[in-house]
Input
Amino acid sequence: MTIVFKTLASEEMLDAIGWYERKQPGLGRDFQHEVDEALKRAAANPEHFAKTRNTARKIRLKRFWRYSVYFLVNEDVFSVIAVFHGARKPSELKRRLS
Output
């Protein structure tokens, strides 16, 4: 299955990687690795993850537990629509999941 990041999701992930890397060298790489592993699990079995709005599904990260990854699956394309920190405005996420 092909994994595609929407532009905003890609920007969110890069921002988070940079933020963690500035906090502690190597931590940004750890964040990216956890997102990558979560996406592999989700791509292998997307139905295992809870639906949010409409057909979007959510993966909550373990170590970086304030982050969740939201995705859609259409045929053979796995689209990441948000890499979202839980302290952000929920209205922004709601708009993107509608």
Q: What stands out?
A: Helices lie at 7-23, 27-44, 90-97. The two ends are 24 Å apart (CA to CA).
